[in-house]
Write a structure and sequence with these properties.
This protein is an alpha+beta fold and about 80 residues long. The protein is built from 5 helices and 4 strands; from the N terminus they run H-E-E-H-H-H-H-E-E. About 10% of the residues are buried.
Length: about 80
């Protein structure tokens, strides 16, 4: 058993997030980017800094955000409300 399980979990999360081939993003309920991995920035063509200054809602449209589901090249996204 690890001496600090929460440290192991945090490191595991960071590794999965940072090294995933697919895009992973954490977005606030009001549509602000909180954390994005390199795959997201490569796919969208924006730097992390640029995304953090944009709204997810601006990128996908108000209707898609209102329904909670986004289809398209993103495959799919379901928001947790």
């Amino acid at each position: 058993m690890p001496k600090n399980p929460s440290l192991v979990k945090n490191k595991l999360f960071e590794n999965i997030f940072n090294y995933a081939r697919g895009g992973i993003a954490i977005v606030s309920l009001d549509g602000q980017w909180i954390k994005v991995n390199k795959s997201v920035t490569n796919f969208l063509g924006y730097s992390e800094e640029e995304l953090y200054n944009m709204s997810f809602k601006d990128m996908v449209g108000a209707l898609a955000v209102a329904t909670g589901i986004v289809y398209g090249p993103w495959r799919w996204f379901i928001s947790l409300k």
